[in-house]
Amino acid sequence: MAAVVLVGGLAAGPVRADSATTKKQLSVALNKLHDLEHRIDSESATVASMQKDMTALVTEIDHVQSQIARTQYQIVKKEAEIQDAQAQLDGTREQLNQRAWVAYENGPGSSLDFLLGATSLSDLADRLVIVNSAASNDQDLIIQIEEEQNRLRSRQAELESLENTLRDKRNQLNQQQAALQSKLDAEQKVLNQLEADKGQADNLVNLLRKRYNAQLAAEEAARLRRIQHRGNSGDFRPYAGVFLACPVPGAVFSDDFGAPRFGGGYHLHAGNDLFAARDTPIHAPFSGTAERSDNGLGGIAVKVYGSLGWVYNAHMDHVEGGYPRSVSTGDVIGYVGDSGDARGGATHDHFEWHPNDPSRWPTWTSPYRVSRVGSAIDPYPFNSATCG
Question: What is the DSSP string of 103-152?
Answer without folding.
Answer: HHHH-THHHHHHHHT-SSHHHHHHHHHHHHHHHHHHHHHHHHHHHHHHHH
